[in-house]
């Protein structure tokens, strides 16, 4: 058994931070950030917001579009770098807020910016195994403003907070396939743990993001092309067969480089990095939701989602919408 996307939803924090706002406490400029990244603003959580409130709102929007009652959901996978708590898992809390059944399968997964596609892969395996047979949610909820080092101008200007969700329905013979790689590299992109106060452990991490931007950039450009070509080839498809390519939104120059390498019409690559920055695993489901609501894809269209990030991991997912 395969699946199809029945509904999409997203939610953004109310507070918008422009590049100009960042210049008040960082040695940077709107011009530098825009020309190097394409980003003009990002949304960040305030004290009234949490990953739980964002993710719940995103799921409610997706359930509404899918005309699905909460009790129909058998599995909820939440992808996040870190939930509001280390434990319990965010998926358990979202399940309660949504009023899902107490028999729903809940799980959180952390595959960095590739999380949403790994979440789809988990849901696909549950449908294929027969452990679930009706409907599932995959929701990505990310609070990068909590992980950014707001004194490091080279990284903090890149990120924002958001949540995006899909409701999936079992669908026989619907094409879904994946291609992925992971190398286990933690040197060029990582978020350290917070300091421990164990008497037996001297770890003193600050819990912030560290990145070698140029190395990540090179990895991104090569892996997008490799993953997309691999998943298309496996399925006997060419780029012309694909209605839209949804790439992880990390930098407009990475997106433009992928478009150039693949020789595909730029209109096939929607982007919102300008307004939202990089929201890790939430970039693709939020972009998908915006595109669906704007009528940018039609039922039956083949689409490809492709992400890269911490791990270093990269993954492409081919779907029939
Ligand atoms: N404002 C002004 N100057 C800056 C800023 C800033 N915000 N940030 C860096 N600079 C300066 C640097 O200090 C450096 O100055 P110097 O030459 O005097 O030393 C100069 O600009 C060039 O810095 P680089 O780091 O070489 O800039 P680069 O052109 O590589 O752009 C960037 C940096 C935007 C981070 C780019 O490398 C990039 O986008 N990489 C990919 C990042 C990415 O995709 N991350 C996604 C994975 S992370 C995740 O998704 C969770």
Please render the helix and strand layout as text.
Elements: E1 2-11, E2 15-18, H1 19-22, H2 30-37, E3 41-44, H3 51-66, E4 73-79, H4 90-98, E5 105-109, H5 115-129, E6 135-143, H6 144-147, H7 153-156, E7 161-171, E8 176-182, E9 189-191, E10 209-211, H8 213-234, E11 244-247, H9 252-262, H10 273-276, H11 283-293, E12 302-309, E13 313-320
Parallel strand pairs: 4-5, 4-6, 11-12
Antiparallel strand pairs: 1-7, 2-3, 6-7, 8-13, 9-10, 12-13
Helix pairs in contact: 3-4, 8-9
This protein binds acetyl coenzyme *A.
What descriptive keywords fit this protein?
13 strands; Peroxisomal Thiolase, Chain A, domain 1; 321 residues; alpha/beta; 2 domains; binds acetyl coenzyme *A; five-stranded mixed β-sheet; 11 helices; 34% helix; four-stranded mixed β-sheet
Task: Outline the structure in words.
The protein folds into 2 domains: 3-173, 3-Layer(aba) Sandwich (Peroxisomal Thiolase, Chain A, domain 1), CATH 3.40.47.10; 177-320, Thiolase/Chalcone synthase (Peroxisomal Thiolase, Chain A, domain 1). 34% of the residues lie in helices and 26% in strands. It has 11 helices and 13 strands. The protein has a 5-stranded mixed beta sheet, sandwiched between helices. The radius of gyration is 19 Å and the shape is globular. The protein binds acetyl coenzyme *A.
């Amino acid at each position: 058994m395969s699946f199809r996307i029945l509904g999409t939803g997203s939610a953004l924090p109310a507070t918008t931070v422009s590049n100009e706002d960042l210049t008040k406490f960082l040695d940077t400029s709107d011009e530098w950030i825009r020309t190097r990244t394409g980003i003009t603003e990002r949304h960040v959580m305030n004290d009234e917001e949490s990953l739980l409130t964002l993710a719940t709102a995103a799921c409610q929007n997706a359930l509404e579009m899918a005309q699905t009652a909460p009790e129909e959901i058998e599995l909820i996978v939440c992808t996040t770098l870190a939930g509001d708590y280390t434990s319990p898992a965010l998926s358990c809390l979202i399940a309660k807020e949504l009023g899902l059944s107490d028999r729903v399968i809940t799980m959180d997964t952390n595959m960095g910016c590739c999380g949403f596609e790994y979440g789809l892969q988990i849901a696909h395996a549950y449908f294929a195994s027969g452990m679930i047979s009706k409907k599932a949610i995959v929701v990505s909820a990310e609070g990068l403003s909590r992980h950014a080092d707001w004194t490091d101008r080279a990284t903090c200007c890149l990120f924002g907070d958001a949540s995006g969700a899909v409701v999936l329905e079992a669908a026989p013979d619907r094409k879904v396939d994946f291609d992925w790689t992971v190398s286990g590299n933690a040197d060029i992109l990582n978020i350290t743990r917070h300091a421990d106060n164990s008497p037996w452990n001297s770890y003193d991490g600050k819990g912030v993001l560290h990145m070698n931007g140029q190395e990540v950039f090179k990895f991104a450009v090569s892996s997008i092309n490799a993953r997309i070509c691999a998943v298309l080839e496996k399925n006997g498809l060419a780029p012309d067969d694909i209605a839209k390519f949804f790439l992880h939104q990390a930098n407009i120059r990475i997106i433009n480089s992928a478009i150039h390498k693949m020789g595909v019409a730029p209109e096939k690559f929607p982007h919102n990095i300008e307004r939202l920055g990089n929201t890790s695993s939430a970039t693709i489901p939020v972009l998908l939701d915006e595109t669906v609501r704007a009528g940018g894809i039609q039922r039956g269209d083949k689409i490809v989602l492709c992400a890269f990030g911490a791990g270093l991991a990269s993954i492409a997912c081919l779907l029939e919408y």
